[in-house]
Amino acid sequence: MELINQHTKRIMEGCKERAAAAGLRFEKESLEYIVTNRDLLELTPKLMIPTLYDYWVHEVEVLREKGRYELYPSNPYETVINTRPAISYYNDNNPDWLNVMIFYHVLAHIDFFQNNLYFRHTWDYDFTGQALSDKRMIAQLRSEKGRWVDYVIEFARGIDNLVGFHAELARLTRPEPSARSRMLDFYFDHFLQQGRRVKTANFIQEVERYNACRRESPDHGEQVFFAEVLRKYPEFDSLYKKSLETKAARRHDVMQFILERSEFLSKEKNRWMKPVVEVVRKTSLFFQPQIRTKIMNEGWASYWHEQLFLQDDRICGHEVDFARVHAGVTAMPRVGLNPYALGMRLFAHIKELAEKGRYSLDYRRLTDRRERERYDRQTGRGREFVFKVREDLNDFLFINTFVDQDFVDRYRLFVAGRRLNEGRGVWEIYVKSRSAVDYRAMLLSQLYHPPRVEVDRTRSENGELALVHRFEGKPLVRDFIANTLLGIEFLWGRPVTLETSEIVRTESAAAAPGPPGAQPPPPRERRAETTVWQRVRYTMKERKLTRDVI
After folding, report:
1. Is residue 170 a part of any domain in this protein?
2. Radius of gyration of the chain (CA)
């Protein structure tokens, strides 16, 4: 692995100038490396972070990737990681015209990393430097504690998808509330709704009265508003002061709770385990936004490498080569999902509609199809709109907000189904639905969505750790429950329970009817299978797992 040469670096700097002129924002410093296939095979299990801590699973992944490469050799065009400065890797046999295209793609990725708010917690430090420090710490512990370090890493990695990613973002982005804002929150969120239980119409009237007070007197509007509140509800002041005395319990994710409350980890001989678990948790938090913005991130990069490459005079004579490579990356499959293709087309669709003013209330009120097709306000704000989308959303919001019927019809998208052709004895793929609602639901079902598992504090006070799975329509994978709870029991030092929902299939008998007008024969039993969800509780105690129906 080595840095790119000066000639290729000048190409990159030229791409930076053109990308910045188009509106992309990124730090000027970046590192570009030439890598061999062997380097890529060794970096891939470490998520392309060369300084990530060593772990035996990484070595197994390297062996697997080597075997796969021997059977199906292929080279990725580039890989970029979100560090300070940004690091990207390239093959050693790329021609200059291909590097121009790839550099634009990489710069759009860097723009996304450094401006999308879901990456906010990664902006203030260099992860590769922190990872190197963590790697050295774990190597030192491994020389002292041996294989127990790998056991702790494995147990922690079993629950590293339960980290409080959104709580981390909230901590960084929410300003500290002022005395006035606390009082306002208490009045509208608790006093009116939970205390007085006012009707919706009265609640809206209070909101309108507050807005009117702020409009008439921006500096003293809240004082005027609360003066009327105290006149109408004399008890409000005492209830608000009492609420300040009750400190809200801080919400912890499962890993945080174990780190802070585990008596086992707090023992002198076991304290070395805490920094190991913290490294695993910190690494998971760093990569959470990349998992949650895959379609947006790849779509944004593909959209901009197409836009900028076609305007670059350095591609002259290579238009056909570009078309071939670009089509291979961004072709929209008839069945399946290509995040590059979907994201790129959705960004282009959003920009076009924003240019025409179709994200407005006037357009949404139109019911005539021809009027909707002719609607074009020529706002000139399409680019501004897509940059705002890039900044504020993740994959779920991106798809749920902008995948509409116009988009599905434009690209002739559909939901595919599978059925058995009994005559030919083969499975058939058919068009199941062309509805935007169904297509959107299909996309959302494929997004990363870790289970919501929380600590039940009231049941965890007696020493055992009580976990509750907030069921959202998808059951936990039963094959993983035993090993995961085994690891949690080790880190917690006491029994662990997990409450979740599972499918129970029941059979009901029904008599089959005879032919009309005939003497009914003896009833034949016909069984119909129904599906029911039930709550169950798993208990891991002394490395033995039991299951009970609640």
Report:
1. no
2. 29
